[in-house]
Amino acid sequence: MTDLFAETRAAFDLPEGVIYLDGNSLGPLPRAAAARIARTVTEEWGAMLITAWNRAGWMEMPRRLGDRIGRLIGAAPGSVVLGDTLSIKVYQALAAALALRPGRRVILSDSGNFPTDLYMAEGLVKTLDAGHELRVVAPEDIAAAIDDDLAVLMLTEVDYRSGRRHDMAALTARAHAAGALAIWDLAHSAGALPVDLAGAGADFAVGCTYKYLNAGPGAPAFIYVAPALQEAAQPALSGWLGHAAPFAFDPAYRPGTGIERMRVGTPPVLQMAALDAALDIWDRVDMGAVRTRSVELTEAFIRGVEATCPELALVSPRDADRRGSQVSFRHPEGYAIIQALIARGVIGDFRAPDILRFGFTPLYTTAAEVEAAVARIAEVMSGRLWDRAEFRQRAAVT
Amino acid sequence: MTDLFAETRAAFDLPEGVIYLDGNSLGPLPRAAAARIARTVTEEWGAMLITAWNRAGWMEMPRRLGDRIGRLIGAAPGSVVLGDTLSIKVYQALAAALALRPGRRVILSDSGNFPTDLYMAEGLVKTLDAGHELRVVAPEDIAAAIDDDLAVLMLTEVDYRSGRRHDMAALTARAHAAGALAIWDLAHSAGALPVDLAGAGADFAVGCTYKYLNAGPGAPAFIYVAPALQEAAQPALSGWLGHAAPFAFDPAYRPGTGIERMRVGTPPVLQMAALDAALDIWDRVDMGAVRTRSVELTEAFIRGVEATCPELALVSPRDADRRGSQVSFRHPEGYAIIQALIARGVIGDFRAPDILRFGFTPLYTTAAEVEAAVARIAEVMSGRLWDRAEFRQRAAVT
After folding, report:
1. Mutate which of A270, A350, A351, A364 to disrupt the B interface (most B C-beta within 10 Å)?
2. What pLDDT was estimated at residue A223?
3. Which of A376, B16, B273, B372 has its CA 20 to 30 A from that of B87?
């Protein structure tokens, strides 16, 4: 296993002297991606021009890449398709799910969900103007809040701030028992831990590919629809590439077969080329091995930081089974501390109001890096190295 | 002017021996784009990792590129933003427009609109389930169909099949006189002819960047909202990057200032890098010069084809003022003819059921190429060179 991860690490182009613990925000550059993108640019776009849609297989990529991701998240071939952003995919899944539960009006989510999921739901509720309610409770109150007026349970499996992980199978079963559908956001799950969408009985899932999957900035999102629901799910975002025959240019929309109907517009070919290269690395590993290593790394990190930095309070669950592949601590000066760490070559990130967040990505993060990161965090904390104006000055994006 | 276009042509990487008359479907590769993309991949994504969102200015790109496009379409700075696909932008514009005309239920469009515009409207009408009606009439009947029950007039300025051009200013004025709003799709206008959104009083506009703007396969779309409407327009697709303070991670959505609220999710950075390079070429030209040259090229093409190919019937308006930058002919064997032409190095495209479509793009199309294209079309037609099984076999994408 050590050899496997040495090999996967060598597949990334990581800057010298940097310990990158932010792959849960933006994964690093796979070495093969630069050449793959360049090939798409010059040999496909440049040389084949419009004919590349067929000759280079561009048109099939959203489905082909969906199947490659499907293997990592327990989704059968033909149940995942790429396209758009995660926000758009949330809207698409939620609109389809609500239409499948016409008599019900409640969408249940939690305050640990990533804001855009809640915002998109809020926008849909307002647009529908049909008396739907977005009910947001604390993560620990979700199970108790599932009742018979629920249309849809919409959750992110792993909390972007705390790393707390929901029990997808148990909550989905509970939603189903109440007659509701379940939508899972896998933003911090896909490539972070084993996911079994089919086994958990999830109805819809969405996710992004620029975090643990390493497909690059602005890489496309994906959507999963359970095979049993695919023919009943009606796309609200009924774009031409989800039409049964896009190039017939019919005046009326007719949804495509299965997952194809969840396509909308022209897919981002250059970003998909990067994703294709990034997924080559995933072909070599299985998620079980990644998870084992992830737990080792996060446990070592927690142990190290707690032993050396008493001012940092652990936010993530202590029980590895209850968290994803990140570890978060809390400190009122979290922003400045993260800036000081970045200046010393340890890249983590800050999430308002006071969270220091560190992602652990076995494909390229080593045990030695975790140890070194702990040492640098201890230096920054014990020496109050964060207490300088340059670190406390907030940038627009953090 | 000749020198100018010789210079712009040299800025493209065009394959040897090909006459490319399909830049209205996918523009060719700007030479500078390959290096620009490579720089974004290795020096920004690879070397700066997550910090590139600030350090490389990624977060500002949708707005900055929007302003660059704005110059070409008569839009003031701060009224155009990039993101998503054209289909999504149609939905976004239409949802916002309908919400601004709450007492009205009719969306008027025409049968020459690109299908995805009609499909997205159909999906929105079905999703709203509030009694809206998508009324589709023939393009020539639009003016007469504008009446006082109209909420929104939604048109594509230049017809993707015929190249027929609507009178944007006149129809917008008529829509306004009836109390309706006007949405213009500029897919075949931006970079094809002078557009004056502000002068025409357009309320919303949308467009893509992979056609005449040459930003590459799957390049992001753009949306324009008239400055006077920006604060009233409510985004149905209320994603986090359209929030007033995305990184505050507020639980409730609060729309951003002005055009910023029309952003949704994480923008496609690699595709935006390509667009940035493509727009450098546009900085050297003005749309008036492009239009003059475009008319010369299309007139020469029509003259040539009509003189040599009596079997091909002109579909585009004969009056240059009434068409965009493409010329279409009709023939029952249009598909096979286009395939035969592609095999002989003239790339145009086919649009069902019987349209042969040729785009003229002064930045790189020369008068000599138009002449040569006419000669090859004449050879194919007079020799019935299209009448071979290999040309009549339809591919999935055409």
Report:
1. A270
2. 98
3. B273
